[in-house]
Each structure stands twice: as C-alpha cells, then as structure tokens.
Automatic annotation (TrEMBL), chain B:
This is ABC transporter permease. Keywords: Cell membrane, Membrane, Transmembrane, Transmembrane helix. It is found in: Cell membrane. The keyword Membrane applies. It comes from Bradyrhizobium cajani. Signal peptide: none annotated. The lineage of its organism: Bacteria, Pseudomonadati, Pseudomonadota, Alphaproteobacteria, Hyphomicrobiales.
Length: 358, 305
C-alpha cells in the first residue's frame, strides 16, 4: 500500500514536470526595470528593446518584466522571483543590480543573466553597456558651434566614471572648435527629479549658458531651455516633443538588436558569458536626427559620426591633458584604453571646476 | 541684479509646492492626526491635475482636479484611521504606496504630453520694475495663493473659535469630546483640508513647475513637506521660514556649483536639509517651554459614548 502510494506520488510528480516542460516550450525571458516604463528615458528605452525582441522572436519566447525595482538588496528578491517563475535568461537593467544579480546567478547556475552597465561577471552572467561617450563627443562638437556665449551648461547625475567620461568627451570635442569654450557643471545628485533638473537648467541659463546638456533622465531641462529660447540635447530617448525648436540631437539607447542577438544565442544553445561594450559601430545606441542647426553644422556632426563608426576618430585620442596640466598615460596606443575610460575619475584641462570627491 | 531676480524667482517656484503641502499637513496634525500619506496624495494630485488641464485646456480646472483627487485620497485615510481607528502611521504609509501606483495608472495615457504652463501675472509698469517687479507682480497664481493660504490658516488657527476647537482636539481629544465637540468630524475635515492642499501642491508640479507628467515626478517632496511641519514646531510662521529657506538653499547650491565654488556637490545637495534643521532648531531653542507638538498627535480616538 505504502509502495503504491509512493509510486502514485512519483507519477504525479512526473506528470507535473512533464506538463511544466510542455508549457516551457517557449523560452522565458525576464527583465528587471529600475523605473516605470513611462519614464520616457532609461527604462522606457529598455522596454522598447524588449518589444523589438518580442516582435522578432515572439513565437519562440515569452517575456516578463518587473518595473520600479529599487537597486540594492531588494532587487535580489525580484530577480529570484523571475527565476522561480521559470525564466531562463534574465536581463537586469541598471548598475545597482550588479551585486544582487551576481548573488542570484551563483545560486542558480543553470539560469543565464545579463547585467547592464556593470563590471562583475560569472560563467552564467554577462555584462553589456554602450560607449555613450562617442555620442557625447558629437554633441560637444555641435554645442561649440551653436553656442554664442561660449558657455555650455552640463547637468550631471552622480560623479561616476560614465558621467565623467561623458563630460570630458564633450569638452575635448568642443575645444577642437573653440579652444576657450567654458563648461559649467551642476550635479543634481539624482537620476530623476524633474523639479530639480529644471532648477539646475534655470541656474545654468541664468549664469550664461546657452546650450544645455544633461546626464539625468527627465525632459525637464529640455523644456526649460525651450521656454528660455536656448538649445539643448536630449538624453536616452527622443525628447524633441519637449523642445521642437530646442533639441539639437539626443543619444538614443537602442537595446533591441543586442537583446535579439542574445536571445537567439540562448535559443541556439550558444550563449556564453561575455562582456559587451558596443559603440556606434555595433548599434548599441544611435543619434536622434540632427535638428535646429545650420546645414554645415549638421554635416560636421554626420561626418564625425561616420568617422567614429568607422573607427577613424577616437574621442579620447592622445595626448589627453589632465587638469594639472600633465598628460595622461596613454595605455591604448594612440588613445586611452577601455579600462581608463571605464574608470575615468579626472577632469581634462579646460574644465574650470573641481571633480567632486577629488 | 538680473541674476538676483532670477534666483529669487526660482526659489519661489521651488518652495511653493512644499509650502502648500506643508500648510495642509500642519492643519491635519494640529487636529491630532498624523497623515504620512502626503507624498501619495501629492502624486495623485499631480496625475489628476495634469489630466484635468490636458483634457479641458484649463490650468484652473487642472488645479481643481488636483484638489478633488487629493481630498478623495485623504478620505480613504479618514475612513481607515478615523472611522475604523486603524494605526495612523501604517495607514499613511499605505496611502503613499497606493498613491504612487494609482498615479502611474491614471497618468499612463498622458506620459509624453506637454502643457502650456500656468500664466504669470503681468501688470504693465509694475511687472517691469527692476529686481522686484517680476518677483512681486510676475508670479503665477499658485504662488500668490500659497501665501494667502498660509496667512488664512494662521488667522483660522489663532484668531477664530473654530481654530481653537481644532487645536483643542489635537491637544486633548478626551477633553474636547467631554465638552461636546465632535472630535472625529472635526478631524475628518482637517484631514480633508490636508488632502486638498497636498493635491493642489502635486498639481502645481505638472501645471506650472515642469509642465509634463511623468510617474514619480513628486520625487519625495511630500516627505519634505512632512518634515517641514515637524521642524516648524507646528507654527505657520516658522513653516513659511522653513519652506522658503529650504527652497533658497536648494537653488543657491545649484548656482554655487555653476560658479565652481569647489565644495563637494554631495555636501551641497545635503545643505538644504542641514540648513533647515539648524535654523528651525535655533528658532525653537529661542523659546522656553517643552515640546510644541500637539499632545494627542497620532493617537487613536474612539468616542466611548
């Protein structure tokens, strides 16, 4: 009797796992989002990528996402929830998910993880990011051409290498057009607070800046620049709606092609842990149309974009001179190497400010 | 001179939502109720305010939508915390979480739309006076209203019988009840006033400050309003000082960064909080006497008969 009960239980278990297997015919792919999809910026663009993935491979996969997941220990629970729901490939789309993702990845070696903008990897955990500084370089060229006051306004989020390298790329480009260009930098110390971003934009314009650039997420700065009749660059997504006569261009995060490639690899069984840091050449991001500028400036921007894409122009071409007037060691031959850019914690010469924490 | 004027204008704009929301919460707390749901009521006010203005094309209607939405949210709180005598702290926190979710839902269809912001007053001759013209005669209606509101609240609390009764409920609900005052009804009105103000403060953001709607756009301003009420030791006069001081330091630290003063930006970002705390602590130390908090603040009251 006892034996038959056990057999029955085993049979039920088997039946259970079989039905689970048939339901899992489609590969389950999960996403963890930092903000709401409606943020019009960072998270919104990741979801555009997910939708491109569904459009391309929708008959073979099933996607799930969790939005508004705070960075830090809470994220671990959310990632694990996706694992338990049967997701086999999970994209965690913000820097602060790095340690939680790694922790869950070590716990579930049979599930594959993809972490955006981080640097910690595991045999089942890849990282991916984009060389946005290339786009910043193009913006710096445009800004220097378009500025009448010779003062650029830059709204930073946090003084981390990604943001600092963006500022440096901008000013290095601007200096090739106008060696005396000035940049005023205000750190908002937040990624997202429309009111504060607007206040920062107002302060920069009141202090004489006439081209506003931002490394924060909302279109507030664009709108202030538009109200005051100045020029500005968007961030992460297309923001021309908030400044039809204001937006010069915007760096657009285009995650779709990467998501499709990685899911295809997972389906083929060729997925392996990698570190992807793609630029304009690999379509990890794109530039929004060049608008509100004369044709010669537009042509200059397009030429620079083509040169960077072809690998003929490197934004951090040596010699790079630091604020102390000494050249920076050139580890990548004729330009700074990836490690130097990924860990950038200094301002280049010509920035009349002190990097916080230095 | 122009820069000084620009800074004052930015300070007024940044302080106004804090002042409106904190004024409402001050009245609520003076009646003895601690509603921690200000952030939630604000963000719903922001979503509904934008929706109202976008659908009708009128900023005024948008503001009314914000007020009604905030009031409805506060009625949920009143029902739970006053009607069912549930713990006020827990209810307030739940209201914030509910508000953040609800506002995302309401605002989902409006993300990416933009509005023409609230018009600024313009009186030929007066608005053009250098330095003070635009500050005194060139603001939007919300700024003038917020000042009228806090003066009205001060007058109500200290110069009317109804205000005295409301404060009595906050200090000793048992005595107020024994004297025959309807404590729960008075508190419900106070909570509704707080909700209306929070809703209006929220609506100010997409209608005048940054004229678009994005989920989470209040970005913690409701919590700052709550803190300002505590730091003001529940006095309207100090609340005005606190709100404008907070706004002023917020804006000045941005300008200081632009000038390249060389102080770490992380410290500068913390400065508004530090400055407000220090000034208000000094203000309350200058007076003798014990705690100024309403004695019955946050305590549950169930009428026994």
């Amino acid at each position: 009797m006892r034996k038959s009960l056990l057999a029955l239980a085993a049979g039920l278990l088997l039946a259970g796992s079989v039905s689970a297997a048939s339901a899992a015919d489609k590969l389950k792919v999960g996403f963890i989002y930092l903000g709401p999809i409606g943020d019009l910026g960072w998270t919104y663009q990741h979801d555009v990528g997910r939708l491109a993935l569904v459009k391309e491979l929708g008959d073979k996969i099933e996607t799930t996402y969790l939005e508004n997941v705070p960075e830090g220990p809470d994220a671990e629970r959310a990632i694990e929830q996706l694992v338990r729901a049967g997701n086999k490939l999970i994209f965690t789309t913000s820097f602060g998910y790095m340690d939680p993702t790694l922790k869950v990845a070590k716990k579930y070696p049979n599930v594959h993880f993809e972490h955006a903008t981080g640097y910690k990897r595991n045999p089942n955990m890849s990282t991916y990011s984009a060389k946005w500084y290339q786009g910043r370089y193009i913006q710096g060229l445009i800004a220097a051409k378009m500025s009448k006051s010779g003062v650029l306004g830059y709204i930073g989020s946090f003084p981390i290498p990604e943001v600092v390298s963006g500022i440096n790329a901008t000013i290095l480009a601007a200096q090739t057009i106008n060696p005396n260009i000035k940049v005023k930098i205000i750190w908002a110390n937040t990624w997202f607070d429309p009111g504060k971003e607007a206040d920062a934009a107002k302060a920069l314009i009141d202090q004489g800046a006439d081209v506003i650039m931002q490394h924060t997420d909302s279109p507030a700065a664009m709108q202030i620049a538009s109200e005051r009749g100045k020029l500005a660059f968007g961030q992460d997504s297309e923001m021309i709606k908030f400044g039809p006569k204001t937006q010069l261009t915007s760096i657009l995060d285009t995650w779709g092609p990467y998501y499709i490639a990685r899911v295809k690899a997972e389906l083929d069984g060729t997925w392996k842990s990698e570190d992807t840091w793609g630029g304009l050449d690999s379509h990890m991001f794109a530039m929004a149309p060049y608008t509100n500028m004369p044709d010669d400036v537009k042509k200059m921007a397009e030429d620079a974009q083509a040169a960077i894409t072809a690998g003929k122009l490197h934004p951090f071409k040596c010699p790079i001179v630091g604020q102390d007037g000494k050249p920076v060691e050139c580890k990548g031959g004729d330009h700074l190497d990836d490690g130097q850019i990924l860990g950038m914690n200094f301002y280049v010469k010509g920035i009349d400010d002190k990097l916080p924490g230095k | 001179m122009e820069l000084v004027e620009a800074i004052i204008l930015a300070v007024l704009a940044a302080s106004t939502p804090l002042l409106i929301a904190a004024t409402g919460e001050l009245v609520t707390e003076r009646s003895g109720v601690l509603n921690l749901g200000v952030e939630g009521m604000m963000i719903v006010g922001a979503a509904c305010g934008f929706a109202g203005a976008w659908l009708t094309g009128s900023i005024f209607v948008g503001a009314l939508f914000g007020i009604v939405a905030g009031t409805l949210m506060s009625l949920i709180f009143a029902l739970m915390a006053l009607g069912l005598a549930v713990n006020q702290v827990a209810t307030g926190l739940a209201l914030t979480i509910l508000g953040i979710g609800l506002s995302g839902l309401i605002g989902a269809g409006f993300v990416g739309e933009r509005l023409t912001p609230a018009a600024h007053l313009s009186i030929p001759g007066l608005t053009d006076i250098p330095l003070i013209g635009r500050v005194l005669f060139g603001e939007d209606a919300f700024v003038y209203f917020s000042i009228a509101l806090i003066i009205g609240v001060w007058w109500f609390l200290y110069r009317t019988r109804a205000g005295l009764i409301l404060r009595a409920c906050g200090d000793n609900h048992v005595s107020a009840h024994a004297l025959g005052y309807p404590v729960l009804r008075i508190r419900t009105f106070a909570v509704m006033f707080g909700g209306a103000c929070a809703g209006l403060a929220g609506a100010y953001l997409p209608l005048a400050y940054t004229p678009f709607f994005i989920p989470g756009m209040t970005a913690g301003r409701g919590w700052i309003a709550l803190a300002l009420v505590v730091f003001s030791s529940w006095r309207p006069g100090r609340l005005v000082v606190g709100a404008y001081l907070f706004g002023a330091v917020t804006i000045l630290q941005l300008h200081a960064q632009g000038w390249g003063v060389g102080i770490p930006s992380q410290f500068m970002s913390a400065l508004p909080y530090l400055a407000t705390v220090i000034v208000l602590v000094l203000l309350s130390r200058a007076r003798t006497g014990g705690s100024t908090a309403p004695a019955a603040l946050g305590t549950v009251f169930v009428p026994d008969r």
